[in-house]
Every structure is written in C-alpha cells, then in structure tokens.
Known about the structure:
mainly alpha
Amino acid sequence: MNVTTHQNSNASLSIILIWKLAIGSTLSWEISRLLGSTHPYLAPLSVILTVQSTYDKTIILSLKRVIGTMIGIIVTVLIASHLKVNGINLGLLILIGCFIGKYLKFDKKVLHQIALTILFVFSFEHQSDQYAIDRMRDTLVGVLVACLIQVIWSKLIVRKKTSTSTLS
C-alpha cells in the first residue's frame, strides 16, 4: 500500500468516525431525554468513549464501561452518603472502588470507568438525587446506541462490498 492510499484510507475512516459520533450522540441524547434523564449528556459521553473502529472492539469497550459504571455507582451509593464531598473522601472511594475492580480481575479500562463514575456520582449525587440512576441508564443507552450504529454500519459495508464484487 502506498502512502497516498494509506492517507486516503485514514481520511475515510476519520470521516466515518465523525458521522458515527455525531449520529450516535444525537440519538442517545434524545433517547435518554425521552426516558426521563435530567442528565442526557451522559449517553453521548458513552457513545463518544465506546465507538471504536470495529463492532467487536465497540462491544468489548462497552461492556467494560457498563461494568465499571456499575461498580462505581454501587461503591459510591453505599458509602458516599456518609461522607462529605472533598478530595480525601473522593480518593478513598476511588481507592476502594478500584481495588474491588482489581480483586475481581478487571483490566485498566474497567478501573478507569470505576474511577470516573465514582468522581461524577460522588460530586453530583449530592446536588441531584437522580444522578446515579441517570448515570446508569444513560450509560446503557449510550453503549446500546454505539453498538447499534456499529451493527448498522457493518451491514452497510458488507452490502456495499457484496454489490461492488457482484458488479466486478
């Protein structure tokens, strides 16, 4: 493959990614809003963080995001209601949550999701009682939309390749 072909391929992949992120963000925001979320921006966040170059990679990262989010919410909801919001307590919650993830033998991507979820749930749950619920629901909406976009896109690519090879 020469340099020009490689650059054209990368440019095409970037354009495809841009469309997937834009469409996925739009759909997930509106679905979350329709489902009653007061934090619909969390669904596009999941789309943006989980859409990968292939369906398989998107599924794997989506599962890791959901697992990390669940662990982070559980740790925070069980413990945080007894704590003041400050850096030391945040650090302790992240320490506990990530060690739970490590004990359960999850990888670094799950640990990052645990830490992110603890940060946001701990910070925002004190301001909005629905944040943890919205976080879980909107994460699920976002990863489902990301996976759906990948399925539809892969079907379009297969269909395009089939029609192109038939014409040849």
